[in-house]
């Protein structure tokens, strides 16, 4: 565990990690409070909450081919910091708009803020890749997984408390301040020019539509032709399926099988149990990550989680259900940390922004297709038990696929890397 936190000795990483933490904390508090504000003020119009969720996801379809290109062509540090400051300004404007009560403008601002946020992650991930050494990537992925698990467990609660204590305006003010702090932390990092500008200096006037489309296509082709990277991207696609299926299947099994009357109450407990499993699993996975091959962690995490997700179909009591949920969450971080730690090791730093820019929309597509499939086949074709069987089976099959192909692809990649290093040494 000491090795896990030794990465914080690098101040650049510490600042970037704290920037991501403050940014996410404020966003969770502000948006949770805003959702409860909508439920309170427009209790007879619940579609407002659904519309809010759409404002988070739709921008991905609008900017997905731009975000990665900018992260590779422009100053990554400035992109990340400016995203935070623009979002801080939009949060303050949203506060004023809420006071006025003009809902169309509020939703437009939410859409705009979400679109700006999409530019942050590829730039931030590319910076972290350059800040750390290869041996530290898995450690950083473990720490990010822990942070995500903490927000999964406590994020909504913090948002609700903020809404009760300071109202939606106060919560959004916290949101805005957190973005400002995040931007300052990123600005204070002393990052080498080659990390910030891996493809050299470019002017905004250089970013012609033809060039941006060409860059996006080159990133897509790079991801497809890089066989090991492509295999990992399949893993992200599967995680999108899991996210989409679990987001509704858990509600269905509680409402229609295990707790028809008190399903809302048990949904809260299910979230707590899942969050606890993710936190404990993140700590466990981080502690053993350096002792095993990354592809062993990835395959094992998916295999065991897939088995327990499928086993949920046999749950006849709430206790058994929560035990299976906990066990599935306990081993899922093995896969998340493996993928997150492996990606920076195998991706060319000059392409990192474009690769990250492809992954997010791909996960959203798989999540959307999964939800569409569930809406078509449940309950006419698939029962609630069938949903968990199918999802569990998909995850297990991908785990078996990884068990067969990843060792060979990893060895081939390492061999190519050694040959390249040897050639450079001779020169």
UniProtKB/TrEMBL annotation:
The protein's UniProt keywords, in alphabetical order, are:
Cell membrane, Membrane, Transmembrane, Transmembrane helix, Transport
Provide the coiled-coil residue spans: none
Domain Major facilitator superfamily (MFS) profile span(s) in chain numbering: 228-427
Q: Tell me the membrane topology, using the record's own terms.
A: Multi-pass membrane protein
Q: Where in the cell is it found?
A: Cell membrane
Name of this protein = Putative MFS-type transporter YkuC
Instruction: Read off the PROSITE patterns from this record.
Output: MFS (PS50850)
Which InterPro entries does its entry note? MFS (IPR011701), MFS_dom (IPR020846), MFS_trans_sf (IPR036259)
Record gene name: ykuC
> Transmembrane residues, as ranges?
16-39, 51-71, 91-112, 150-166, 228-254, 266-287, 294-315, 321-342, 362-381, 387-406
Query: Could you tell me which species this protein originates from?
Result: Pullulanibacillus pueri
> Which domain of life does the protein's organism represent?
Bacteria
Q: Which Pfam families match?
A: MFS_1
- Gene Ontology CC terms, in alphabetical order: plasma membrane
Which one of the record's GO molecular function terms can you name? transmembrane transporter activity
